[in-house]
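Internal ticket - ligand job 612, BES:
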Amino acid sequence: MAVVDPHSFTDSTHPFATHIHLSLYFDFPSFTIHGSALISLPGPYTGPLSLDTRSLNVHSVLEPRSNTPLQFSLSAPDPIKGSHLTVSLSNHSSVLIVYSTSPSSSALQWLSPPQTFNKTYPFVYTQCQAIHARSVFPCQDTPAARVCFSARLNVPRQLSAVMSARHIERRAPIAGEAAELVCGDSLWCAEGRVVEEFAMEQPIPPYLFAFAVGEIAFREVGPRTRVYAESVPAVLDSAAREFAGTEDIIRQGERLFGPYEWERFDLLVLPPSFPYGGMENPRMVFLTPTVIKGDASGAQVVAHELAHSWTGNLITNKNSEHFWLNEGFTTYAERRIVEVVQGEDAAVLNIGIGWRGLKEDIERFKDRMEFTKLKNKQEGVDPDDVYSQIPYEKGFQFLWRIERQVGRPTFDEFLKRYIDTFKFKSIDTETFLDFLKTNIPGIGNDIDLELWTEGVGIPPDAYEPVSSIYTKIVSLANEFNLGRMPREDEVADWKGQEWELYLESLPKSVEASQILSLDAHYRLSESKDYEVKVGFLQLAISSKCKDYYAEVEKTLKEVGRMKYLRPLYTTLVQGTGKEEEKVFAKRVFAEAREGYHPIAQGVVESILIKHV
Ligand code: BES
Ligand code: ZN
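stdout (structure tokens):
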């Protein structure tokens, strides 16, 4: 067997699928999808075909034209990779797999009506990165294998579906079009069901497959952009306001990287349990509602997810060991865009916050230094467990270092050539380095490329940003430690980012009385900006200021974004003499768990297992 990806059973001596057609019947009461996947190969093939699955019930594997059964076997589940599905083919160029998902599918969050805003209809959505597509349909679930999709989603008439794909039509179900499904024609064509059809004609890595089904509506915000969300006028209106500048951001992306190749750039604002800030699903980015702060600062996350349209979605990391190629480049591009649309100060603050985050995560991984390398070994490692700022910030620093060396005009030209050369390809770190050395001769004499990509920690030529506002905030934070509260006039024009950096720059723990007095002045515990609120609550917990535990509990129950869950739970349970906090964290998790996406449930669980 020839392995291409430590997180997949895909065998590179087998043909890679060219197209997957999905028929999906959504059964909300049982949190189940009854599906079929028609997998097309480049041509007739004889031999075994390895596919990834996780918690899928495989009912049958068929030759699609005659519906004759084919031999298959499903392995016992590996805790990280899931179950290996092997299908035996003889001169077949496609195969049909009939299956059902299970309620515990790791990609899917099923929300019952009371968990939604309007409380009338259920909602379901996917999060497939890093390795969760296999829990929705069988596939070669590695970014090394790019594939086109088409899909028919059969949903209740009151709901609508969106996908990271072109919407073809909404229509009545047709008898016979999904007869092989476990639900059969009788349910597929039942009264009150509709079919939504989609197609993704450009080959994408499976982790970019995405859909959401619910009571969804939209507002137009630009020539190629709508914002979608649960059909709540206040949510849609505030989202439309927050993202009004999106077209401007797309133009900046095009200026930096070349044409936008995906036609539409729609945004979907998910319920508060969405586990990430944003996810770059092609044609439709998924976003947490916490980015809507009412001051257009959500543009940073939009700039980031947009930048993935080039770095990540056009050029894709071959597997998670080269994840920095996705996130480092995207973080670099995000900041170039922020610099233009929000100004240089905003970009420098963003870099400064990133620098603090990098140092913190290098410290967090001091016992697992392998994951402080840009390129790292992930055999036997769950990518969700080693997710950190390091690929983002060290990757950013590496590219920024190259920019400083060659100058911006040369680097910009290099970036465009890089995108153009590798678009619609999945590549690794070596491919990037070879291209860099060819196109910028002598770069290896000025920059230690091996130290940057294969070394642990932060290389000596990484660079902490300087600007008067950055320096001022960091020095005010140092003074707070000596007992000085920042004066009102000093913070008068601070917005979320300034406070975020200030809080990140304070010592890990201070006197409880200082916490109370800071909050009495500036009401940080009540901030509508979760970056500020969570930064403050984390400081309160590590300073053992119990006055805020009720607010911590409330926060852990209202949002499911892992960027907030991770530090709050970790700060509660990490360290000695924390018996009360551990009991508290366990109780809150038991009560909040149902409301989290399965990926977030897993991450919180591993934090608690490690420390409690
Ligand atoms: N692709 C990531 C999210 C992701 C990474 C999901 C790994 C699953 C596995 C996305 O582009 C991202 O980086 N989101 C950030 C946004 C931020 C950097 C602006 C987030 O969610 O915080
Ligand atoms: Zn990203």
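Auto-summary: Residues 304, 308, 327, 330 surround zinc ion (ligand 2) (CB under 6 Å). The longest strand covers residues 32-53.
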